[in-house]
């Protein structure tokens, strides 16, 4: 079944990496001698069910990334470079405009999540064939508090119902484009793609991923990232 479906992957990597407080954008920082973005792309490049990769980059980084990062590595798949927007949502929408017209399924993934596994990606694609909208996440481990503007705790949601959603987030193309266009119409800005589809009233299925599918966001994540890679290498 999956062989008959055109699957596009949109890799969002057009952020500024402000929270990393690094001289170079975080997706180009190296873990185990390889740029974070390359780790991410290599996972998607090996998945035979993915027919195209659309990489969203900051406009002013496209040439640098093509010449100094991507050209140093071999990829089986063609990687289409698209310029991003001010917000992640706009970047993903820009990518949607370049998705192949035969695409049925779109996998949206953060370039800053290099530890995603092929197994989780394939599982999320299979689930999206059934449910049309899927998010990958993990149950939260901490108790979560809702805090007001004066830093007082105003609610403690039932932790058994709380998940930290990651990426990939995988959708039927028609649903995702409609969700983005409605968000633009409503001037709504979300922090992930699932929320845009939820706003359409479409049920989004959560599937369990891995706790080590972290998003490299702040300097501490680089230490975690090296440890994750070392542990994986020791298991080979
Ligand atoms: N306008 C944007 C903002 C973010 N992203 C991408 O979305 C992913 C998740 O975003 P985040 O971790 O917040 O990255 P940044 O926005 O770069 O980080 P910061 O908020 O610290 O600047 C990243 O791979 C990032 O490159 C994007 O494609 N376009
Ligand atoms: C999409 C996401 O990775 C899901 O956890 C997250 O919302 C991205 O947030 P960011 O602030 O753009 O990193």
Automatic annotation (TrEMBL):
<dbReference type="GO" id="GO:0019288">
    <property type="term" value="P:isopentenyl diphosphate biosynthetic process, methylerythritol 4-phosphate pathway"/>
</dbReference>
<feature type="site" description="Transition state stabilizer">
    <location>
        <position position="19"/>
    </location>
</feature>
<comment type="pathway">
    <text>Isoprenoid biosynthesis; isopentenyl diphosphate biosynthesis via DXP pathway; isopentenyl diphosphate from 1-deoxy-D-xylulose 5-phosphate: step 2/6.</text>
</comment>
<dbReference type="InterPro" id="IPR034683">
    <property type="entry name" value="IspD/TarI"/>
</dbReference>
<feature type="site" description="Positions MEP for the nucleophilic attack">
    <location>
        <position position="159"/>
    </location>
</feature>
<feature type="site" description="Positions MEP for the nucleophilic attack">
    <location>
        <position position="215"/>
    </location>
</feature>
<comment type="similarity">
    <text>Belongs to the IspD/TarI cytidylyltransferase family. IspD subfamily.</text>
</comment>
<dbReference type="GO" id="GO:0050518">
    <property type="term" value="F:2-C-methyl-D-erythritol 4-phosphate cytidylyltransferase activity"/>
</dbReference>
<dbReference type="InterPro" id="IPR001228">
    <property type="entry name" value="IspD"/>
</dbReference>
<keyword id="KW-0808">Transferase</keyword>
<protein>
    <recommendedName>
        <fullName>2-C-methyl-D-erythritol 4-phosphate cytidylyltransferase</fullName>
        <ecNumber>2.7.7.60</ecNumber>
    </recommendedName>
</protein>
<dbReference type="InterPro" id="IPR018294">
    <property type="entry name" value="ISPD_synthase_CS"/>
</dbReference>
<keyword id="KW-0548">Nucleotidyltransferase</keyword>
<comment type="function">
    <text>Catalyzes the formation of 4-diphosphocytidyl-2-C-methyl-D-erythritol from CTP and 2-C-methyl-D-erythritol 4-phosphate (MEP).</text>
</comment>
<dbReference type="Pfam" id="PF01128">
    <property type="entry name" value="IspD"/>
</dbReference>
<feature type="site" description="Transition state stabilizer">
    <location>
        <position position="26"/>
    </location>
</feature>
<dbReference type="InterPro" id="IPR029044">
    <property type="entry name" value="Nucleotide-diphossugar_trans"/>
</dbReference>
<keyword id="KW-0414">Isoprene biosynthesis</keyword>
<dbReference type="InterPro" id="IPR050088">
    <property type="entry name" value="IspD/TarI_cytidylyltransf_bact"/>
</dbReference>
